[in-house]
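INFO batch 0412 | record 1 of 1 | parsing
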Amino acid sequence: MRPKTISVLAALSLCGCATTPVYPSKPRVALDTAAGRIVLALDAKAAPISTCNFIGYVVFGDYDNGSFFRTVVRETNANPNPIDVIQAATPRGSDDDSRPPIVLERTRDTGLRHVAGAVSMARDGPDSATSSFFIVTQETPSLDFGGGRNPDGQGFAVFGRVIEGLEIARRIQRLPADDQELLTPPVVIRSARLLDAAPAICTP
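INFO prediction complete | emitting tokens
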């Protein structure tokens, strides 16, 4: 685990991302994957904690050489609340503890929903998300607050949406996987890059 010796603000300045704002409340992030390009628009106004956390990992290059490693397809899922998602992680894995976990931004409070293309934070218990995120390929309300996918009923934190490449995400979802829903092989994320200025709330 490498130490984080500079602030997110300093990293944004070094990469040139903190100048000339374009979409200050909905910055875009481009994921260059082995299966194609996926562009996300993050929602800093509705979900500032999750958005700024994700941007921090992006500007430090933490997702570079990570992967989409898991696929869940409702037709083959035995859970009583089936879902359609692909899950990604840094090279350190889905239990990456290089930074503290963040507070859960419930869909009850943000007004965001797990519609097709939604980008959301993976977690175990509430307030346990770190770097692992997932893309929803089909509308899945059981992932929202009050839904049954997680037994605690708190749902997952949506913080953005795919604006380019949803067909790539759906293609990844249909790739071969083992009986543990792990893609075989995983789809490499070559790089993740912030395309616009980080919202002011992320650069105090």
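INFO post-check: DSSP finds four helices and eight strands in the chain.
INFO record closed
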